């Protein structure tokens, strides 16, 4: 997948606004988007939105969106295996804005088989999903639910890439949503030696059943909201928040190492 290519385009758009033609030209070079006739509406459906200014200049909406106004979608999936050989088994998600829950998404996906170790881990048996919608139906509904929200997950790379790859294979294009990892965010805001979901749930006294998609998404949402409450006061916009989650932990590590 062309995640790095998309990130390179977005990194330029974070720094400055660009002409409409430049934006469409850059995104049209992404292999997974070459079959799309790109315009602002299509890009929004794929997860990224712009403000259209004078002279057809486009600005990333997340550059100016205030954090309290931004909608975040906290996501978790269960799968039958890894991204290269497994299939999505369940998707759970919760949308939040200004610390308040807006709505939830939860669905099994019909699959032909579930490995015994996955059933042991998740408690999901084949009989539980036999009447569920297929992957195309679930992904279509999830994409509409997600919209242009910020995609948040615990170890976001796994969930984001898995869903993006599955969307592409089903003909829906890849994800372009901005994303935040709650592991990274927690490392910026919570002092601890372990940042797995169970460890953070214990620290923050979050009670939920582990290894079910919606429950894990709700737990990650509580971690996310806790960390939002710990943000430095100068972090105001969505892009400032994303930058903070990626860089503050590195600064903290360097500081701690220097002052040992």
Question: Would you kindly provide a brief summary of this structure?
Answer:
The protein has 260 residues and is α/β, with parallel strands linked by helices. The chain has helices at 3-15, 20-28, 40-46, 61-64, 116-122, 126-129, 135-146, 156-169, 182-189, 197-204, 213-228, 238-258, and strands at residues 18-19, 50-52, 57-60, 71-79, 88-97, 100-108, 150-153, 179-181. A five-stranded mixed beta sheet has the order 6-5-4-7-8, with helices on both faces. The protein has a three-stranded antiparallel beta sheet with strand order 1-3-2.
Mean pLDDT comes to 93
Q: What is the helix/strand order? A: HEHHEEHEEEHHHEHEHHHH
Number of domains: 2
The CATH topology label of the largest domain is Nucleotidyltransferase, domain 5
Instruction: Outline the biggest β-sheet.
Output: 5 strands, mixed
Q: Count the DSSP helices.
A: 12
Number of strands: 8
Q: What gap, in angstroms, lies between the N and C termini?
A: 41 Å
Domain Exonuclease: 71-233
Organism: Campylobacter vulpis
Keywords: Exonuclease, Hydrolase, Nuclease
Protein name: 3'-5' exonuclease
């Amino acid at each position: 997948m062309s995640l790095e290519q998309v990130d390179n385009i977005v990194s330029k758009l974070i720094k400055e606004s660009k002409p409409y033609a430049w934006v469409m030209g850059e995104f049209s070079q992404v292999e997974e988007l070459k079959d799309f006739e790109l315009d602002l509406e299509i890009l929004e459906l794929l997860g990224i939105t712009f403000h259209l200014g004078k002279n057809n200049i486009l600005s990333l909406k997340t550059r100016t969106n205030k954090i309290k106004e931004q909608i975040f979608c906290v996501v978790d999936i269960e799968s039958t295996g890894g991204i290269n050989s497994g299939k999505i088994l369940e998707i759970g998600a919760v949308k939040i804005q200004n610390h308040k829950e807006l709505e939830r998404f939860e669905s099994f996906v019909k699959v032909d088989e579930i490995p015994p170790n996955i059933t042991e881990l998740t408690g999901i048996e084949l009989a539980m999903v036999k009447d569920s919608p297929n992957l195309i139906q679930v992904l279509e509904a999830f994409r509409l639910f997600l919209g242009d929200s910020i995609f948040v997950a615990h170890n976001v790379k796994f969930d984001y890439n898995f869903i993006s790859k599955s969307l592409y294979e089903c003909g829906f294009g890849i994800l372009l949503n901005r994303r935040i990892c709650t592991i990274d965010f927690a490392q910026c805001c919570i002092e601890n030696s372990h940042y797995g979901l169970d460890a953070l749930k214990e620290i923050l006294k979050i009670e939920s059943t582990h290894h079910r998609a919606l429950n894990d998404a709700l737990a990650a949402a509580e971690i996310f909201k806790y960390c939002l409450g710990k943000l430095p006061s100068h972090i105001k916009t969505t892009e400032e928040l994303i930058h903070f989650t990626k860089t503050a932990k590195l600064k903290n590590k360097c500081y701690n190492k220097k002052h040992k």
